[in-house]
Amino acid sequence: MKPDSLKSRIIPVLTILVVILAVWYVAAYFMNAPFQRDLDRRANVTSTTMEFIGKTMAQPKPILPAPHQVVSNVFENTFLRSVTSNRSLVYHAWVTLSSTVVGFTMGTLTGILIAVGIVHLKALDRSLMPWIIASQTVPILAVAPMVIVVLGAINVTGLVPKALISTYLSFFPVAVGMVKGLRSPEIIQLDLMRTYYASGNQTFWKLRVPASIPFLFTSMKVAIAASLVGAIVGELPTGAVAGIGSKLLAGAYYSQTIDIWAALIAGSVLAAALVAIVGIIAKIVDRSMGGRPA
Amino acid sequence: MTVALRSWQGAMALLLCLAALASLPLMAVDAPSPFGAGALAVIFLLVAGAALVSFTRLSQPLLAAVLFLTTHLAVWLLLAGIAGNEGKATLAFFLMIAACWLIAWRCVTVLSGIRAKSKTGDTFLRLLIPAIFGAWILILWEAATRGAGIPFILLPPPSSIGARLVSSVPILWADVQQTIFKAVLFGYVVGCASGFVVAILADRIAFLRRGLLPIGNLMSALPIIGVAPIMVMWFGFDWHSKAAVVIIMTFFPMLVNTVAGLGASGAMERDLMRSYASDYWQTLIKLRLPAAMPFIFNALKINSTLALIGAIVAEFFGTPIVGMGFRISTEIGRMNVDMVWAEIAVAALVGSVFYGVVALGERATTFWHPSNRGG
Hints:
The structure holds 2 protein chains of 2 kinds. Chain A is built from 11 helices and no strands. Chain A has helices at about 1-45, 50-55, 65-80, 90-120, 120-135, 145-155, 160-180, 185-195, 200-235, 245-255, 255-290. Chain A is about 80% helix and about 0% strand. At the A-B interface, helix 1, helix 5, helix 6, helix 9 and helix 10 of A face helix 5, helix 6, helix 9, helix 10 and helix 13 of B.
């Protein structure tokens, strides 16, 4: 049963991916063809159809790079360059990753603290909670350039401002998820704790906290993706020093389309890896707490 | 002891008042226009009086009203006193602000304990309590920036942001038109609609669903915002490129949520539809789409924020000389921090209104859902 279901899951995904790839190649041909025709006319070259197609896939600054160009760029900049090189994707990914992780950690801790406060203080619940929810509707990322520049004006540069943006983006999901989680025990379970004559502290540590763990990890997955986006956007106004965001910006300035796509791929791999790591930790914690696979 | 416990905020406020008295004056000695003796006496009487009142056993609404009025009058006097004395506030000034804040906290605690009898009263309370909290953030911000003389570039006081907002309405309105009415609305409608259509297709063709869903789920975690520079290259500097970013960002949440929603109707209801001999489209329109509405509106809400973020961040990569993202990135370069804050305030307002409209639409369409029935 199991290998079969695995097969029935993977084949459709692969098919879609192949279709996307095919569409990408066709689109690359059509988007790059006008410029290539122009080049050929100026150079007075007449090429056969196959040659022409090959040329549209090999421009140095194409409008839409062909997938193999992007892949070779990613491969070259990931494995063939020294890690400290300014052109190495590993280096840029590391810069972004470090501020993402710092911001995510601070954001998660803040979110948990706020959630504990909200669950315990009714005044805080009624006054702060509406603002937390309302702030979700606000385009927070718009603040990013200001945070960077203002902190830069008082000589706080580098990792901290970016991490602050990530913190800001990641604490909301965690706070909201934790409040939901800490309140998830049902009345019947709370009643049981009362019949055990459990103190408020004991109820909190033995019932509410364990009940909130699944909620915590679900919101942490959202939060880590958000902090990565925060770190990338935070790198945009720093004058393109280092990081995936600066790589995007530099690519946009110099029309290095292949570099932009490579940076995008690097960011996506990073995001998928981070979410997967949180997912694995969630599974380990769940198992060690006695959770059974559903 | 029990009396003090009834309002620890009041007790703390009294202590702070005493400490402030010991460290008078409120403004540094060389301040151009220090507090008059009369104003000083009024402030201390108001705060100490409110602190004492908070120990009494007045009825809760009355107590809350008294605390609310006294503390905000005192704070208003304190803030009005900064005018002309920027950056000259002493420790005593901030102690008094803190005392006022504690009393406001007491007031909110009392308000939170009130059980409103009528529905309008309940709504009023639910709006008033967060409003006090928000107002106090502004008050503390104003007191800190102007009282302690924090450099304008670092953090402008809310009052000057407000003044800037009012004085540059035409510019802000032009930015809103460019970013919201052109890029965001167009991209949002097209992105959500195409996500919806593809979701219906995926619902009809199981193969497509099994292929698209994992990809859609993965895409929601990726930093899609990074396509912004590519879109700017393809579609030019004007709003079309921003709309394209918005379309891509809103497509996947809509797809994933709609597919999940279409599976939300129960097997029993579907059997009933089959016993009515209703075909696929009838079942879809009469049963499954209404059942999917909570999910679809969830996606619409998520997308309302994503669309704003997408359009604003895409403008960082190049725009004509108008637009919210453009304004933010250029004004910060010119160190006009108050303009940036005004733009952010507008963005926040637009975001909330956008979300509110979607939420109203949800109320109207999913009135049957347990979370909307109340009671």
